[in-house]
Amino acid sequence: MTLANSEAAGQPRVGLFATCLVDLFRPSVGFASAKLLQQAGCEVHVPVAQTCCGQPAYNTGDRADTREIAEQVIEAFEEFDFVVAPSGSCASMLKKHYPGLFKGDAKWEERAQRFSDKCHELISFLTDVMMVRDTGAALEAKVTYHDSCSGLRELGIKQQPRKLLGNVDGVKMHEMKDSDVCCGFGGTFCVKYSDVSNAIVTKKVDNIDASGAELLLAGDLGCLMNMAGKLKRQGSDVEVRHVAEVLAGMTSQPPIAGSGK
Amino acid sequence: MELTAKHFKANASKALVDAQLQKALGNVEKGFIGKRQKSVDALPEFDALRDSSRDIKNHVLEHLDLYLEEYEAKVTASGGIVHWAETAEDARRIVLAICKKANARTVTKGKSMITEEIALNDHLEANGIEPVETDLGEYIIQLRGEHPSHIIAPAVHLNKEQVESDFRRVHTHLPEGRDLSEPVSLLSEAREVLRQRYFAADVGITGANFLVAETGSSVIVTNEGNGDLTQTLGKVHVVVASIEKIVPTLEDTSQILRVLARSATGQDMSVYTTFSTGPKRHEDPDGPDEYHVVLLDNGRSEMIGTEYQDMLRCIRCGACMNHCPVYHVVGGHAYGSVYPGPMGAVLTPSLNGIEETGQLPNASTFCGRCEEVCPMRIPLPKMMRHWREREFERNLTPSVARYGLKFWAFFAKRPKLYRFAASFGIPILSVLGGSTRRFRSMPMAGGWTRYRDLPAPEGRTFQQQWAQRETLKQEAKQ
């Protein structure tokens, strides 16, 4: 369904795919996402039959389980005009990788494609589909932004968060060196190859520290937890948040790291 | 070289604490990335050239048999000889026979990854023929008894002090007090030493960046000119190349050349681009008396028609490794295979089987930077995932990962059970996180907490809180 159609019928109905990490570790990101979507004029629903997008299985090579999970997600979200996830990597899984799982399957191929067409990452949905320019938030902070790989390279998310952050009163952007280089999270990679992952995230936090920012933002909770965990371990004062929390003006929850060692 | 891909983790751990290596790897990041970007920015049609290069190679791979036949006919017509080698062993045998027939004692070699793949040097040495690498990087690692750690910059893992010490150790005929403190003096010395070797060589062996079907030419690109000397000074020139190096025409070659050096070193073109078509003709002032091409398959034709076919577009520019965050911290030798980095993580299992090499396609964060810079638009992460699938299907995935995943998937596929478990587990975990709201260590999560704190959950799950909020809203309405 196009936006115009759904608008004619009222507000676009958005299914919020909260992502497993947000659900389990950082509910405030879910609420911030819901608030941003509602502010943009959407009717927000959170289907209860959602767990995970299936990336851990997919990237471990377990196609059978991935497909079962994908079918479950498609069924749970099929009724909505849009499916929005506050994570580039999960959104890309739904949008870019689901259709391939059903290639050649008469029953599912088209269904998966229709589903894929209405999936979006939160920030790009706000800017590119709902045409949001200013979320009305304010925060006095020097911030830096990490471009999470899937969002950046699979969905082309680069300027969208920066534009919205640019209109948050008080936010000053301090771009870090290599903001578009992987933080070493990589899903199960970070535990399977923890030595290598550590070396990569060490470079990342060095760049974060060198940027002079006091608040690190990104759009993916996996990367955020990885960088936050490393910053914390190194005793850094840099605070870490999902960008949606700042854009929604919901920064009352303590940050993922920082403030109080 | 010995395949140690299954020891990737141990190799990587060693590399991570090797201070000299870490310093040298910094040069990969500093040098290659910026230069590539600069040369790409200066060429507005770069992406269009990538697309057409990809299309050219796809077309060739769809009709590879026809182009190979055409190529062979053209080589023969120009007086050269094409030898078909199905396996690495076949290729070694063929090259050795050519060298023996020429009564060769010394052969010079231009830089060639394919001869690394077939371990040609060891084979020649074992048969009493001395191979001399003439590419500066290859020459250095040959002195050290090492293998390339990068496909275009074989000695990128070394620093100039190491090279100086190797030169002093090996070049004992030169004055002890000579100044070798600068790269340029090292280069001059290598040039001096190698010059003598070119004249002594009976056979010159090169690889090929392209084989042109239209003309039967082999093409090499170098920055040092050593390839030209290798192939023109010996009596016999042997080209060793794999079958996917074919391009249809000279025009196609020139198109792909425009993306090759830019992707590799950020140059518009390599300093030398040399086309060889057959042996010396009557009117030619120089060139070899014999021109042989050894066409190697070594598993490649089996990739055609599979999900790995796209890998055969690779033009060996090394951009993927230059941009790979994993390569940046572990270097090329950690991969324990001839081809390192992302392209190696796809190609090595194709050549050596997934049983021994499963670590390589797993050792990637899937950040996608390799695919982003690949001039031939090879979907490297996707193909690494395919290898993981093959591994999983065949029960080769390490059991910890397999059972961990199955445990997770069991819950992920059962939303009610998942929510029930999470609604108890997460609040408990949150309380255990205490006032610091993080875990410094946690059973079963050592891979994470060895180096990072694990942020504690905020409290109840999002689903729990959302459901409660919705219920309150409903009640308020009533």
UniProtKB/TrEMBL annotation, chain A:
Q: Residue limits of the Cysteine-rich domain? A: 14-95, 143-227
Alphabetical list of InterPro entries matching this protein: Cys_rich_dom
Highest taxon in the source lineage? Bacteria
- Which Pfam families did the record assign? CCG (PF02754)
- What name does this protein carry? (Fe-S)-binding protein
Organism this protein belongs to: Hoeflea algicola
UniProtKB/TrEMBL annotation, chain B:
Cited NCBIfam families = LutB/LldF family L-lactate oxidation iron-sulfur protein
The entry's protein name is LutB/LldF family L-lactate oxidation iron-sulfur protein
What Pfam families has UniProt attached to this entry?
Fer4_8, LUD_dom, LutB_C
Q: Does the keyword Signal apply?
A: no
User: Mind telling me which Gene3D superfamilies this protein's record contains?
Assistant: Alpha-helical ferredoxin (1.10.1060.10), NagB/RpiA/CoA transferase-like (3.40.50.10420)
Keyword line: 4Fe-4S, Electron transport, Iron, Iron-sulfur, Metal-binding, Repeat, Transport
Domain 4Fe-4S ferredoxin-type span(s) in chain numbering: 305-335
